[in-house]
Amino acid sequence: MTDEPARWSQATVFPDMWVDPDDDPRDSSGPGPEGELATLDGYLADYRITLRMKCEGLDPEQLARRSVPPSTMSLLGLVRHLAEVERNWRNWISDDEPLPKLYGRRDADFDGAVAEQAAVDAAFADLAREQAATDAALAAHADLGERLGRDRITVRELLVHRVEEYARHCGHADLLRECIDGRVGQ
């Protein structure tokens, strides 16, 4: 006997997929997006959806379950972390005073990921709000070469960094979810 969950997928068409193509909310049918901005936005949107998919169907205890000591990483911690990161990206492109951290001190995004429904609801609300605010701030800058903020970062660099951040954390989410209930897939 082992305490490890059996590996499984909900997909029946392709066993290495998370869900069957007809049930996948990420649209991969038809031609790809036109242009660099649409491509970057499309990848970001897909990674955002992937993160939510990796969290679906789990209770607060499962979402807050830590990976392996001494790490404090959990799926809920990742959601909180990405909300914090979205907020901080607005600091990168602004000349104003920096926005305060959402969760306080360093690592509070992970440390405060507790197994309570209120914490789960708040984290997902924070993430949605911060994503929308960052998206709106960047929508005013269609020129990918435009330099913004005190550090003069280009819009392109920030967009690529956003895709990279979500992609990296979706990889973490893959492993965390597999450890929780054995579910695997892209």
Notes on the structure:
The chain is mainly α. The protein has one domain (36-181): Four Helix Bundle (Hemerythrin (Met), subunit A), CATH 1.20.120. It has 6 helices and 2 strands, in the order αααααββα. Strands 1-2 form a two-stranded antiparallel ribbon. A hairpin with a 4-residue loop joins strand 1 (147-148) and strand 2 (153-154). Helix 1 runs parallel beside helix 6 (155-181) and helix 3 (75-93) runs parallel beside helix 5 (117-139). The model has no long low-confidence stretch (mean pLDDT 93).
CATH superfamily: dinb family like domain
**Molecular shape:** flat
Number of helices: 6
CATH fold annotation:
Four Helix Bundle (Hemerythrin (Met), subunit A)
CATH class: Mainly Alpha
List low-confidence stretches: none
Count the domains: 1
Mean pLDDT: 93
Salient structural properties:
2 strands; MST-like; 186 residues; DinB family protein; two-stranded antiparallel ribbon; Four Helix Bundle (Hemerythrin (Met), subunit A); mainly alpha; 6 helices; DinB/YfiT-like
Topology record:
Layout: H1 36-55, H2 60-64, H3 75-93, H4 108-111, H5 117-139, E1 147-148, E2 153-154, H6 155-181
Antiparallel strand pairs: 1-2
Helix pairs in contact: 1-6, 3-5, 3-6
Can I get a quick summary?
The chain is mainly alpha-helical and 186 residues long. Helices cover 53% and strands 2% of the residues. This is DinB family protein.
